[in-house]
Amino acid sequence: MAKKVLISGYIGFSNFGDDVIFAILTRHLKAKGYSITALSSNPSRTKKQFKVNTLRYKNPFDIIKGIASCDYLISGGGSLLQNSTSNLSLLYYLCIILLAKIMFKKVIIFAQGIGPINGNFWQKFTAFALSLCNLVTVRDPQSYKLLSKWKIKSRLLCDPAWDIPVLPRESRGYVGIQLRSCANMHPDFIKFLVKYVGIYFSDRKIILYSFQNSQDLKVCYEFEKALKAQWPQMKYEIRSENTIKSIVEGYSNLEYLIAMRFHACLLGLKYGLKVFALSYDPKVTNLAQEFELQCIDVTKKPDDYNDKFGMFIRYKEHSEIAEKRKSAFDWSAIDKYMSN
Fold first, then answer.
1. CA spacing 20 to 30 A to 102: which of 120, 254, 304, 312?
2. CA torsion through residues 132, 135, 141, 143, sign
3. Are 6 and 72 in contact (CB under 8 A)?
4. Orientation of helix 16-31 relative to helix 43-50, angle to 10°
5. Which of 47, 72, 78, 42 is CA-nearest to residue 58?
6. pLDDT tens, 82-138?
């Protein structure tokens, strides 16, 4: 009889990055013969899209039922364990982990980025929950260092999204821009970004990407309004169909990418595009540093971006970075543990 896996994550919210990770994880587990159930905010859509069993992620009876009947709880990937979004979000994912341990289930933390976690109580609570887990894997060196500081043993892997299949590049010279809402974004940031996009790319078509319509479309329309006002002659379009297929296909036509979301930048790197990171979160800054990308902090007062845009245009990838962006996810530790 197939072993049963319950997956807890940011599932069913039509978020490109989390959908990619979930698709890659479920594809691998299916190939290994596991029966999969997911806690989802939209069970019917998740069931139809990913061909897995689903339960309502906020329904306590569904949660208890799912945990009681599983052999393994997999928490992740992405950045679930952080409270920059809200304390309630962090509490939810920690309680799922603790409930699984109370019910004597095996718990795997799947390639997560840990933090930012603000507040001594929340840090200690998170450390306690992670200390109970059977296997902890993280996706970045900063998370690994943090858990080492907390005396929690973990394995450092890459982000699972590096395994996303991409198409052959058919660059049309387009400039991709991916934006998301951010509570701390400086009020002048969009105006300044539009200014420099027009200065450097007035002869290019701009493709504005929404990776999660509930968070991205508003700022895309704000960018569109500013673009029309400053550079009325420029060609652009907004792409709000945020399925994995549509975004992967669209990226194959790009030459440049200016992006806020972690997985928007990652997909650009996977394609070998010239990528400019717009950081709203430490995970984006860390990715930019790792791959030597130009990076702007969207929460700070805009300044003269000429130097950064100039280096972005002239960027030439060296061999070490080219090799690093060919990363493949290492399943060995997870497969070994789950086969025991």
1. 120
2. negative
3. yes
4. 50
5. 42
6. 998 889 999 999 999 999 999 999 999 999 999 999 999 999 999 999 999 999 999
Q: Which of 119, 125, 118, 138 is nearest to 97 (CA)?
A: 125
Three-class secondary structure of residue 294 per DSSP: strand
d(CA 207, CA 212): 15
Whole-prediction pTM value?
0.95
Q: In what order do the strands lie in the sheet with 274-279?
A: 236-239, 206-209, 174-178, 254-259, 274-279, 294-297
Strands 206-209 and 174-178: parallel
Residue with tokens 């997911």, as numbered in its chain: 38
Average pLDDT over residues 24-33: 98
What domains appear along the chain, each with residue ranges and CATH number? 4-163 (3.40.50.2000), 174-324 (3.40.50.2000)
pLDDT at 317: 87
